[in-house]
């Protein structure tokens, strides 16, 4: 089996899981987008996934991503895809990340929001990254304070609040975590009706996330295979 066939097969499997989870939750598959997390994999894989119909890709490191985005553009000139930053982001990288990312999914402080706003040369779509258990080491803004950061981002002229993103914490069932996120987002919608994105669920827990309102699953391993250790 060549790489294209391999990816086609895993993509079909992922789509089937998403469809099954949507059916179980009484949701339409159109409500749940698939974001391919291509970190550590080459631009050639992005090109093949694009040929198979995917248009949304995510990376977690600025340097690797900017190179890959350039390489992909050479492999598939004129292809219309969107790139997402899903890794933790230092403020001094804001300008560089905006050079390749169409959306920054990991805004977890007012200071990072300020840095992105300052670096922006166009309106920038962002998600607020939420920490469900308050463990600062894993990134994310405390869920209890979510309205504060959401309001802050929404007031910025340069940033456009599209929704929220989370990674399920280790010490809690994904089920519980995604349910808590959904509750918080439901309250947030009163003030921010256009913040409709809930980015939740990865290879291991996408069914739980879809059961609790995810509109965007971020899938790496289940699509591309297991990652070798990331380069330092
Ligand atoms: C790597 C990564 C993913 C994908 O994880 P898999 O378990 O490989 O599907 C999703 N979200 C973020 C933020 C990641 O860094």
Structure write-up:
The protein has 232 residues and is α/β, with parallel strands linked by helices. It has a single domain, classed as Alpha-Beta Barrel (TIM Barrel). It is built from nine helices and nine strands. It has helices spanning 3-25, 43-51, 62-75, 94-98, 110-119, 146-155, 174-191, 206-211, 221-224; strands at 33-37, 56-59, 82-85, 103-107, 124-131, 141-142, 159-166, 197-199, 216-219. Strands 1, 2, 3, 4, 5, 6, 7, 8 and 9 form a nine-stranded parallel sheet that branches. The model has no long low-confidence stretch (mean pLDDT 96). Pyridoxal-5'-phosphate binds next to β9 and α9.
What are the SSEs and their pairings?
Elements: H1 3-25, E1 33-37, H2 43-51, E2 56-59, H3 62-75, E3 82-85, H4 94-98, E4 103-107, H5 110-119, E5 124-131, E6 141-142, H6 146-155, E7 159-166, H7 174-191, E8 197-199, H8 206-211, E9 216-219, H9 221-224
Parallel strand pairs: 1-2, 1-9, 2-3, 3-4, 4-5, 5-6, 5-7, 7-8
Helix pairs in contact: 2-3
Pyridoxal-5'-phosphate is lined by residues 37, 39, 60, 86-87, 167, 202-204, 218-222.
Domain Alanine racemase N-terminal: 31-226
Keywords: Pyridoxal phosphate
Modified residues (N6-(pyridoxal phosphate)lysine): 39
The gist of it:
The chain has 232 residues and is of the alpha/beta class. It contains nine helices and nine strands. It is 43% helix and 19% strand.
- Named CATH architecture: Alpha-Beta Barrel
Low-confidence stretches: none
Mean pLDDT, to the nearest integer, reads: 96
Helices, by number, come to 9
How does the overall form come out from the CA principal axes? globular
- Overall strand count: 9
| CATH top level class name | Alpha Beta
Tell me roughly what share of residues is in helical segments.
40-55%
Bound molecules: pyridoxal-5'-phosphate
CATH superfamily: Alanine racemase
| Sheet/helix structural class | alpha/beta
Distance between the termini: 31 Å
The name of the CATH topology is TIM Barrel
**SSE ordering:** HEHEHEHEHEEHEHEHEH
